[in-house]
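During the reporting period the student researcher (J.K.) took over the structure-prediction task from the postdoctoral fellow and processed the backlog of single-chain submissions. One of the processed entries is reproduced below for the supervisory committee.
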Amino acid sequence: MKTKTANTQACASTQSRSKHIIIAALIYLVLTLTAVCAFASPPPVSMTVPVAYDTIDDAAKTGMVVIRGLEGSQHVEFGGSVVKCLGTKGYMFSMPVTTGQEAAVFWETKAPNAFGKCEVVARFHSHPKSEYDDYFSPLDLRMAHAEKVPVYLLVVRSETMKVYRPGVSKRTPLKVSGVLMSVSRGEKL
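J.K. obtained the following structure tokens:
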């Protein structure tokens, strides 16, 4: 009888692990499809605001303050960029935009022609209230490393502002529905 009970428990444990793996795979699939669908149509354009700030941090913080006041920021992600334009002093931020999604935002940054050639030197975005809103997601980390720029985060629920700097900020493992993901808490500003 003990063997049958042990086998039943082992089977239940295997079923539970399988269930978690399936749930995690579905979450990953939804996030991937969200990203693919966001790129299927042209991303919204985020126009640069013609006010210069002394530091990248200052420009990103101002952009995140703007997000706080935007309708819907409690429910969907907003994002913008910090740019450095040739021939200008300081850094400018672009107006935050949204694609209306809870777990991702994609955008294209444009600066007025009067500023000449501009380069994106940082990205900022928000996370609406969720179980993992306090973490930089795997997508956030991928963007930071691919573009080699810091990524800033406004956690809307707590109004906390953070930054993840590629090569400097620590990553941490986080188990989501049984799947281990690489995320980061970044550093508070």
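The committee noted the following: The two ends are 60 Å apart (CA to CA).
J.K. will present the remaining backlog at the next meeting.
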